[in-house]
Amino acid sequence: MSDQPVIIPRSDHPISRKWISQNAIRVLYRLKESGHLAYLVGGGVRDLLLGREPKDFDIATDAKPNEIKKIFRNCRLIGRRFRLAHIHFHDEIIEVATFRSNITEEESAVETAVKVEAQASASTQAAPRTETAMPDAVLREPTISSASSAVQGSVPPERPRPPRMLKTDDGMILRDNVFGTPEQDAIRRDFTVNALFYGIADYSVIDYVGGMEDLRKGLIRIIGDPVVRFTEDPVRMVRAVRFAAVLGFEIEAKTYKALLEHKDKIALASPARMYEEVQKLFLLGEGEKTYQMLRNTGMFGVLFPHINAWIDTEEEGYPHIWVGKALDWVDTCVLAGRKVQPHILFCLMFGQYVEMKTAKLRSGGMAPLDALDMAVAEFLAEIVPRVQVPRKVALAIRDILWNQGRLEKTQGKAPLYFLRRPGFADAFEYLRFTSELTGERLELRAWWKEFIRSHPVVPGEAAPTPEKKTGSQARRPDGRRRRPRRRGPKPQAPKP
């Protein structure tokens, strides 16, 4: 790792502008024309070098967030911990960040003070004092009087600004808006393979941290001291596993050792942020491989302690294989180009766990729907402290499991009515997976496949509504016919 970067010219790397989003190219050139330094950074450069299609394109620049907003009318500033600029286009959002540094304000202030003192001493030695120079006491007197007048005046003191960098006592970063240079920005990134820059000026790749070498070796190596970097942001441990699984890389030895020793710190990460990370873990086409790596490192137990304990137990002498098989199914869907929604993911992964809770509550005499509601509520209470699954996702899981009973009704108009309902597709997806895994209800799945084929859904077609009985056909809840309501005489118009 050196302050002098390794420059890989265009002739020595495979990145072409035609593989980069045209919106990202526009942003890079616009920043360059405005007099700013701008690079394509992060996973986009890594994927382009590996011949993969990038998921998104991120840009780093020396322009401050407010300066970026002035350049782009379609810009929105977001974030508190990291101040970012989102450039909105019709079908894409380009994320632009200012170069950052890990140097704190105190360290920066000390460095600045040392430089100023050195410059002042040098200028004092270069310019000898003359007899007409004013005494130090005279020079200091206006400062004292001005300070006293400011205290006595009516001008209120300035409100202190919040710190640009804020850490906990353990070293975890809570706020990080200290701007820096390209070199500092590369060093503060998480892994070497994610710290490569692509310059639009000469189309070269810039490497400050040895990322190109690790890319050739297939290594995930954290930048700097692994213990310090994992303490600053525990989510980096989760990201290390994800990158290793998705890219087919190995985690470098020191990085892996620190990950095993400090995995429990993942519990300190924001639950809302972990919900987003869990989706990335399992919805990129390598979910089953990622799951096995999380289990081997013990990180799955930190994320889902109750479910991990359930997986470790055996049922009828066999270990629970449900979660791994569910992720195999999800990987197949993702690789086939199908979009898997979060509620489908969590229901496939943890449906058996919730169903077992439901069965236990029903054995105690609870009504079926009440038991399911209670089981979903307990499941949500167990995982929310670590992974903040939204309530709407939990409700969707409940609906999928409850609708499994509706799939059993294959007589009369009930199948056609349910087929047109919004929740049918999710319920049938769960039926397909469970019947494939357990070998049960295969005939029911075949019946529904044939019914769907013979009753294609017309876009915009509403579900049929059951006929309402009126008049003498209507019955009371106790089964007796309702007596028609007597109507009084129609009011007559007043006589003139």
* CATH H-level homologous superfamily name of the domain at 1-106 and 164-215: Beta Polymerase, domain 2
The CATH first-level class of the domain at 1-106 and 164-215 comes to: Alpha Beta
Q: Please count the beta strands (DSSP E, at least 2 residues each).
A: 14
Assign the structural class, choosing from mainly alpha, mainly beta, alpha/beta, alpha+beta, or little secondary structure: alpha+beta
Mean pLDDT across residues: 84
Cα(first) to Cα(last) distance is 105 Å
CATH topology of the domain at 1-106 and 164-215: Beta Polymerase, domain 2
Cα shape: elongated
Count helical runs: 21
**Percent helix among the residues?**
40-55%
* Low-confidence sequence ranges: 105-116, 126-153
Indicate the proportion of strand residues. 5-15%
Strands in their spatial order, largest beta sheet? 1-10-9-2-3-6-5-4
Alpha-carbon Rg, integer: 32 Å
Largest sheet: 8 strands, mixed
Second rung of CATH, namely the architecture of the domain at 1-106 and 164-215: 2-Layer Sandwich
